Amino acid sequence: MDITADIGDFSGHAGPDACPGALQVHTAADGALARVRIPGGALSPAQLRELAACAAELGSGVIELTSRANVQVRGLRAPDPADPSSVPAFAARMAAAGLLPSATHERVRNILASPLAGRVPSSLADVRPLVSALDRALCGTPELAGLSGRFLFALDDGTGDVLSCGADVTFLATSASGGVLLLGGVRQGPPVDLAGVVPLMLAAASAFMELGDGGAWRVRDVQDGPALLAARLFGAAQEEPGQSDQAGDSGPAGDSDPTGPTDPARPADPAGPAGRERAGVRDAGTFRQLDGDVALEVVIPLGRLTAHQAAVLADAAPEARVTPWRTVVLPGLAPDAVQQVADRLTGAGLVTVPGTPWAGLSACTGRPGCAKSLADVQLDARVWAERPDHEPAARPVHWAGCERRCGRPAGEVVDVVATPAGYRVAGRTEEEGT
Ligand code: SF4
After folding, report:
1. Between the N and C ends of the chain, which has fewer C-beta atoms within 10 Å?
2. Minimum-distance ligand 1 atom for the alpha carbon of 404
3. Which of 361, 343, 350 is CA-nearest to residue 310?
4. Which residues sit with their C-beta closer than 6 Å to ligand 1?
5. How would DSSP label each residue in 32-99?
6. Where is the Nitrite/Sulfite reductase ferredoxin-like domain (predicted)?
């Protein structure tokens, strides 16, 4: 569908919150910031190259990865200083690249998915087709354009990786043919077959809109939200016995810990992701795929890709999967090509070897891009990560220039927050994301 003609007509300010998109941008101290939703984190090489070109030609030259596996470009400016139309130009190029299929629903296409779904032995179900189906159905349901831009769907292949991302509506596979639904992180309702997943997730979103009456952005904003939502969806059905824990505590389905040393997806070679055992920290390394190919997970320092780095990634593999952990998974690599690809990526400043201090490290924009910031947090985080005596952190660490802590990952995080008197360090358990 060609929507470029519609973009110019879009008012750009409708919606229940100010969460930015590619059309409804955020005005920051360093210019307009546009966020592009990437359902399932899946980007073709051509899309990645176009993002890189747009970042270089219209923006600050950097693509930022968000904690919801979306991307954003900031500092948007006009290619011609006399023409202040950089935002429409950016949106038109995203639409032409297939990254903006709906002007009305662009901000609500927040769909996480397990990045290795269907490719590795620990993946119980291939949820990739569900991502496309959910995206199409979401964009085809007019009333769901009114969802908050923060409302989040997740499709977990049974490994439990995106289960911990704090989504409002999560499908968790428990077999190749079906699984269970979690609302606000709490399992609700009977098991569902794969064929019923998309209609059920859409029904949950519609029920949430009725329940929140336009005033709530997330399920957690509504008191007893999961139970009330389940009552609307399933009638008299109750929360599944023994499943009332928050998703992050109940753990994934399946027999193996996907981050543990017995994970059958793990490579046997010593160059594999030996450092991935750090709780909640996703590290660099390789996965052996079911088809014999290899997937390489690349850590992007501070989640920021230069246009050159993005182009190198685009040249490396037939597909890139952005993850909520500020990594990019490159699937489908021939085993004998992996080292060459890794060398090229390392040469571009990306990280392909486990045990890196960049894994699990994130930072908000800070100074000078954000007027609210009390510090240049990206510079300070880099200095911290590059100290010779730096030990990789046991938990994700997020640096922020103020208490708002933009871009903070979901779950257990060590917060390093700027104050007028220096940084304050504290570990908290909260869910947030961009
Ligand atoms: S956390 Fe504060 S300083 Fe950092 S980007 Fe958000 S508002 Fe700005």
Report:
1. N
2. 1
3. 350
4. 364-366, 370, 372-373, 400-402, 404-406
5. EEEEE--GGGEE-HHHHHHHHHHHHHHSSSEEEEPTTS-EEEEEE--SSTT---HHHHHHHHHHHTTS
6. 33-78, 288-346
The edge-to-edge listing of strands for the beta sheet with 31-36 is 26-28, 31-36, 71-76, 62-65, 304-306
**Confidence label for 410 from pLDDT (cuts 50, 70 and 90):** confident
Residue 64 vs residue 236, higher pLDDT? 64
Residue 34's identity, in one-letter code, is: A
pLDDT confidence of 427, banded at 50, 70, 90? low
**Ligand 1 mean position to 19 CA, how many Å?**
14
- In three-state secondary structure terms, 422 is strand
Q: In the prediction, which pLDDT does 215 show? A: 82
Rounded Cα distance, 206 and 20, in Å: 22
Distance of CA 332 to the CA centre of its chain: 21
* Maximum Cα interatomic distance, the chain, rounded to a whole number of Å: 64
Sketch out the chain's domains with CATH numbers.
4-108 (3.30.70), 112-203+216-250 (3.30.413.10), 274-347 (3.30.70), 361-430 (no CATH)
Report the separation in Å between the CA atom of 406 and the middle of ligand 1, taken as the mean of its atom positions.
5
pLDDT for position 96: 98
Mutation to probe ligand 1, out of 373, 398, 430 (largest number of atoms < 8 A from CB): 373
Q: Which residue in 186, 154, 175 sits closest to 41, CA to CA?
A: 154
